[in-house]
Amino acid sequence: MAKVTIDGIEIEVPEGTTILQAARLIGPEVAPPAMCYHSKLKTSGGYCRTCLVEVTKGSEKDPRPMPKLVPSCRTTVMDGMEVGNKSSAKVVEARKGVVEFLLLNHPLDCPICDQAGECHLQDLSYENGTAKTRTDFERRTFNKIDIGSKIQLHMTRCILCYRCVKVADQITDKRVHGVLNRGEASEISTYIENVIENDFSGNVTDKTFRFKSRVWFTKPMQAHRDCDKCSGKVNLWFKGEEVLRVTGRKDQWGEVEEFICNTCRFDKKKTSDWTVEKPAPINHHSVISANHYEVFVKPTEFKLNVVKPLSIEEKAN
């Protein structure tokens, strides 16, 4: 076991644990943001640089600080290590620069984007970015390409986190898309606009829900069904009695717990197809929590505030 201190909070974790994993064990108040890391996907992480942290003490054996900021998703802890995240001025300033680079070619169309309300990039920009942009040149744009009956490629919004490539590579038997070209010319695509058709292609992206509804107008409910391809555990997004979309369940870090198949995602959109369990837990950090009160606990008793009248001396002061 190794003891590591992150933003002044000490925790003991097994050997081989990364700084990001240790920070998440402490809680979201010290956990660095991560756009490309996914705990269920092997070799993910190390691309977006949003999780950079400062190691002010390497270990008990070698207390020298690391000379540069390091990606917390790829750096393992050492016994006695001390890490600065939100408490480090270097990290705060560097993260602003990283966010600026991620948004360099990203369209600023949040008010009309169908991802609004559940966009981690939007949260990242709000919490760690700057209020103004320094760019005045034309942004890079791409044409929308249909690469399947339920998938539309829109590279204009891509930040090259590589997660869609990892998903296809690790949970399907035949990946047909990847990263083409290098540098600023890099893009996600298929070979000669090849079509992506497999049982888990919906985990890459879903065009059937695009612009159907704002997510805060829907109510997510946990449900399950017997499925021979996946776990069958999903979230049903209701608007009234209609199921607008079906998604995999996510944890508090926005990562899918179990990937679901296309049959569950696209073909089973009737309430009768599912056993509805309960309202899905909603992070109050998200606007989806608006008007959702299932986590509200009614107090057992109320106490009136004891109001003490001011004395003559206190009034004079």
Report on the structure:
This protein is of the alpha+beta class. It folds into 3 domains: about 1-100, Ubiquitin-like (UB roll) (Roll); about 145-205, no CATH class; about 215-290, no CATH class. It is about 15% helix and about 20% strand. The protein is built from 6 helices and 13 strands. The chain has helices spanning about 20-25, 90-100, 120-130, 165-170, 260-265, 310-315, and strands spanning about 1-5, 10-15, 50-55, 70, 80-85, 145, 150-155, 175-180, 185-190, 220-225, 235-240, 240-250, 275-280. The strands form 4 sheets. The chain has a 5-stranded mixed sheet, with helices on both faces. It has a 4-stranded antiparallel sheet with strand order 12-11-10-13. It has a two-stranded antiparallel sheet with strand order 6-7. A hairpin with a 2-residue loop joins strand 1 and strand 2 (about 10-15). The longest helix has 14 residues, at about 90-100.
